[in-house]
Fold these 4 entries.
Entry 1:
Amino acid sequence: MEREKRKKGRALIARNMKRLRKERGWSQEELSAQSGIHRTYVSTMERKQRNPSVDVIERLAESFGVPMADLFRETR
């Protein structure tokens, strides 16, 4: 059960990263360039294989021009 809760957080971040990236028409390579985060790390976060640190979440939010909380929003 606890493990599933952790995955829910990763899933929220992954879904919102992908949504925000696509809204801007960015590839993973462009997000990498904008954020300074390696493209393969961006890819693994979007596939829910990585648990990003607060620092990485902050860099993503700054790159997208949104508050960090937007990466945790439940959207459908």
Entry 2:
Amino acid sequence: MRLAVLFIVLGMPALLWSQSVGVNTPTPDPSAVLDVSSVEKGVLLPRLTTAQRDNIAAPADGLLIYNITTHCFNFWNGSKWIEFCASVPECSAPPQSTPSHNAPLCVGQSLTLNASAVTGATYVWTRPDGTTTTGSSLNIPGVTKADSGTYTLRTWALGCYSDPATAHVLVQDTPWRQMTAFPGNSRIHATAFTIGAKGYIGSGATAWCGGTARKDIWSFDPSGSGGNGTWTNETTYPGNGASMTFSFVLNDRLYMGAGFAACGTWYTDVREWDPVGGVWTSKTAFPAGRGASFYNVNIGNMGYWGMGEQISTCTSQKDLYRFDPTASAGAGSWTVTAAAPAGFVGRHFAVAFVIGGKLYVGYGHNTTGCPGTTTNLNTFYEYDPGTNGWTAMSNAGGPPAGPQYAYFATGGYGYVIASTGTVYRFNPAAGGTWTTLICAYPGSSAATSQGQAFVVGGKAYVVNTNNGQVFEFTP
């Protein structure tokens, strides 16, 4: 019995090693001594540094290890260690593409990003929120603030990605809000002004020449109709109906007059209106028949008007008049200020606004003769009533030459809306600088004859007197 047991034990190794051994498989491959099966794990061989490998005494022929110094499998061929590294070809990255875009944008506008061309490549965009899309361009209509951020562009070809290129996109809230429409009859070349907490639109005509002149004056209360504004027909101008009249406000009273009526008819009459009593009073007439100048310019207790087009010569003028309402026993008087500087060209349809007690005026166009030559202008000047002197200001980066759609000043800056709808901001410091705002004027029309603006409570209200659109601008 003991001999039989001893025979069985001694014979087991021979039985075991004469068969294949399986790990995680009941049916090892008969060609393999050891068959390891797994779909979750691998076989981990001994991991040695080169120094540790070289310290192995009398390595057997075919001994296999993983060299953690060179990150390669090594085997002993009987005389030396052989590195066994798979030859993996280096990925050849395609050229980088450069992204371009039309930002900065306002909320609601459409963002377009374009990739510069890379032959044979696929373009992969990653948005600020991490989502990806492919294509040579990326278009996002109706952007929101969430679309601001960094966009990453990679090109992909033959299994390889390029280095990333980035584009930084800014989307800001719009400063514009549409208000209650102007209900008055359609007109062009109206005038605008502010008294207290209300803005006003008045005068104008249905056409440049031969149209019906308007004499109605409307007030706008921005706080009415739940903050959308309310219009009220306040009064009727008692003088000659005209377009291109002047207007300014002194001591909460309106001074208005002059302007253009039928073809070739220019007026000089001036009226004062007291909105408290609703009374109109005749004042000293303007010295010459003219119109097509700026509006709503007062500095201190004086009103200013001038330039424009002179009827007798059909020529743009460059003089500036100051009106003192207390002179001539309350009838008021007109005085010519200091002569414009050398190089100043007469103009009509000029831009004008007051910042810090100084007048800034320019642009418009110059006409000489009846009929004559018209030239668009882009020069810009400062008039200081304290010194009665003029200074040329920068026009670099400013609006295009010629008449503009609307203009106003608030918060220490002047603003000009071009006929394209582009908004330019003027900073009078250090000779004047111009900045183009991100958010353009959103109105449907920007014809230069149709836009007027007034400021109430630090906010501007731009009125298209032709289609009635009104937009509030918050700087």
Entry 3:
Amino acid sequence: MSCGALRTTSSVSVAPYPRDSDSALALLLRVDEALDAARRAMTFSVSALAERMAELFKPSSAFRG
């Protein structure tokens, strides 16, 4: 039984302990809030980035033999 494609994403966050919180649970909650805010503020697409990088680094005709 085919269910189709599964799309996944990943996120990384850094929060200094104990500056941002005094307990592990509170620190994780602060990190989760920060990640949610970042997701709302910006959508990041790896495929869009790859396409843009390919455009930026495409060899110009001046360098082709």
Entry 4:
Amino acid sequence: MEGFPILIKFMEPATVLIISVGAILVGVTAFAIYTSFGPPSKQLADPFDDHED
């Protein structure tokens, strides 16, 4: 990982910002998909099942 700080030093600030925002967006999306469809989804309640007639 020695070359990583050098790589950032030569990048434009806007490029670093866009890569950071993109990485955060991908991370939040991956976490949402994991929560919705992965093992934690077993703990989610279905509000439509709770109010059946």
